[in-house]
Specification:
Layout: E1 7-13, H1 17-30, E2 35-41, H2 48-55, E3 60-63, H3 69-79, E4 85-89, E5 93-95, H4 99-109, E6 115-121, E7 127-128, E8 132-133, H5 138-145, H6 148-151, E9 172-173, E10 176-177, E11 181-185, H7 186-192, H8 204-214, E12 220-229, H9 235-256, H10 259-282, H11 289-295, H12 297-300, H13 306-312, H14 318-334
Parallel strand pairs: 1-2, 1-4, 2-3, 6-12
Antiparallel strand pairs: 4-11, 5-12, 6-7, 6-11, 8-10, 9-12
Helix pairs in contact: 1-2, 5-10, 8-9, 9-10, 9-11, 10-11
Length: 337
C-alpha cells in the first residue's frame, strides 16, 4: 500500500515547457517525502500541458484555459490538491537534494512559524536574495525615492528591504517569504484564505506574508532547503518586469496600508523611478530598465487589477474592479482615527 502524499507541490506554468519539465524532474529526483505535484497551465501555447503529461504521468496538469496570473493559478492548484501541506514552487527552479525534505521536516518540528521558505542560488552558485525580503515601510520607500537604496545597496539602514548582506545561509525569521519556494500547512493556507486574486503577478506573496504575520505566524527561512533559481533577461524585458514588480508593490500598499499612507508610498515609488531614470534619459537610453518603468508609471501606479489590463492587455472583470473599490474604501476607513 502506497504512502499518501504529505506535500502538494503547486507549480504555475505559462509557456515554460522546458523549464517546468526540468523543475519537476529535479523535484522528483531530489525528494523522499511523498509528493502530490499539480502543475497549473495558464493557457500556454507551447504545448506545455501535453508535454508535461507525457513526461510525468504521475503528476496532475490542470489546464486553466487562460492566463489567470500567479495568485489565481496557485489558488486553483491548491484547490485541486489534497495533501496536508502546500508548497509553492517556481517553474524556473532546480530543486537540490533533500531541499523539500529538509523544509518539510523543519516545518513539522516547528509549526509555530506557519510560513517556511528556503535559500535560492543563481546558476553560478552565488546567492539569489529573492527567496525572502523585508517589508516596505515609509523609511524604506523614502530611501528608494532618494536613490539611497541603490547607492548603498544591501545596506541594512538605507536598503532595509534587501535584509542587508545576509546570504540566506542561516535560520532567520523574515517579513516576506516569496512564492518561489513557500511551504505552509493546508490548515494555515485555508485559515489565511489563500492568495489574494486581486494581484496578477508579483506582490501577492508579500501581501500573503503580511496577513500571516498579522495572524501571529512567524515566517522563517530554512537554509537547508536550497534550490537554484534562474534569473536574467534583456534590458527591455527587465524594464517590463520591473514595471510588473512596481504594480505589485503599489497593490500591496493599497491593500495593506491606509489610504493616506498608501498615497504617499506610491508617490515615493514614482519618485524613485524618476531618480533612476534621469541618468538614462539624459544619455538617451530610453530602453533602459528605469526609463521604461518611469514612462509606464501610469500603467502600474494604480496597482492591480487595473495594471492587469494596462500592462498585460488582459480584461478586468466588473467583479474584480468592484471588489477592489470596496477594498480600498475599507482600507481608508481603517486608517481613520
Amino acid at each position: 500500500m502506497s504512502t499518501p502524499p504529505q506535500v502538494a507541490v503547486i507549480i504555475v506554468n505559462y509557456n515554460t515547457k522546458v523549464e517546468t519539465s526540468a523543475s519537476v524532474r529535479s523535484l522528483l529526483d531530489a525528494t523522499s517525502v511523498p509528493l502530490e505535484v499539480v502543475v497549473v497551465d495558464n493557457g500556454s501555447v507551447d504545448g506545455s500541458a501535453e508535454a508535461l503529461r507525457e513526461a510525468f504521468p504521475s503528476i496532475e496538469v490542470v489546464e486553466a484555459g487562460e492566463n489567470l496570473g500567479f495568485a489565481a493559478g496557485v489558488n486553483l492548484g491548491v484547490a485541486r490538491s489534497s495533501a496536508p501541506w502546500v508548497l509553492l514552487l517556481n517553474p524556473d527552479t532546480i530543486v537540490l537534494e533533500k531541499a523539500v525534505d529538509n523544509l518539510f521536516a523543519f516545518a513539522v518540528e516547528h509549526p509555530q512559524h506557519g510560513i517556511y521558505g528556503g535559500r535560492t542560488l543563481r546558476p553560478d552558485g552565488s546567492t539569489d536574495p529573492s527567496s525572502c525580503w523585508g517589508a516596505m515601510t515609509l523609511w524604506s520607500l523614502t530611501s528608494f525615492a532618494l536613490g539611497l537604496s541603490t547607492v548603498f545597496k544591501r545596506s541594512t539602514l538605507f536598503d532595509p528591504e534587501s535584509l542587508g548582506h545576509w546570504n540566506r545561509d542561516t535560520l532567520r525569521e523574515v517579513p516576506i517569504i516569496t512564492g518561489c519556494l513557500l511551504l505552509t500547512s493546508r490548515d494555515d493556507w485555508n485559515a489565511l484564505g489563500g492568495m489574494d486574486e486581486h494581484f496578477f503577478l508579483y506582490g501577492e506573496d508579500a501581501e500573503f506574508s503580511d496577513r500571516a504575520r498579522k495572524a501571529g505566524m512567524r515566517p522563517v527561512v530554512v537554509p537547508g532547503a536550497t534550490i537554484i533559481h534562474a534569473v536574467g533577461g534583456s534590458t527591455a524585458s527587465s524594464g517590463r518586469k520591473m514595471s510588473m514588480v512596481m504594480a505589485g508593490k503599489a497593490t500591496v500598499l493599497r491593500t495593506a496600508w491606509g489610504r493616506p499612507a498608501a498615497t504617499v508610498g506610491i508617490r515615493l515609488l514614482q519618485l524613485g523611478a524618476l531618480v533612476r531614470a534621469v541618468p538614462a534619459l539624459a544619455r538617451r537610453r530610453s530602453d533602459s530598465t528605469w526609463a521604461v518603468v518611469w514612462r509606464s508609471r501610469r500603467q502600474w501606479r494604480d496597482g492591480y487589477p487595473a495594471a492587469k489590463e494596462r500592462l498585460f492587455g488582459l480584461p478586468v472583470s466588473h467583479d474584480q474592479q468592484h471588489s477592489t473599490d470596496d477594498r480600498n474604501t475599507r482600507s481608508a476607513e481603517g486608517a481613520r482615527p
